[in-house]
Specification:
This protein is of the alpha+beta class and 95 residues long. Helix content is 38%, strand content 29%. α1 links the parallel β1 (2-8) and β2 (30-36).
Length: 95
């Protein structure tokens, strides 16, 4: 199953909006992990000005790798979020 990681922080309305849309897409075959960037300094330093950041976790010979996905507009409709998820779920099935 394809896994996605959402980097966010409490009180971020953009993060909360994207998370709500991802939860609403639960009928698609993917797993979602939400990471609070305020819990680790390395996450905070990397993503503090970028959140929300959605990554697809991919397996490689060297282990796993997180690939940041294209940033969606905060006003992106649910269908657009689901289309993005389906694109990456389809890629992981092909591998």
């Amino acid at each position: 199953m394809t896994k996605f990681v959402l980097y966010s922080k409490p009180g971020c309305h953009l993060c909360e909006g994207l998370e709500e849309k991802l939860v609403a897409a639960a009928h698609l075959p993917f797993e979602l992990e939400v990471r609070d960037i305020t819990t680790r300094d390395d996450w905070f330093q990397r993503y503090q000005y970028e959140i929300p950041v959605l990554c697809c976790v991919q397996s490689t010979d060297a282990g796993t790798q997180e690939i940041p996905l294209p940033r969606l507009s905060p006003r992106a409709p649910q269908a657009k979020v689901e289309q993005l998820i389906q694109t990456y779920v389809g890629q992981s099935k092909a591998e």
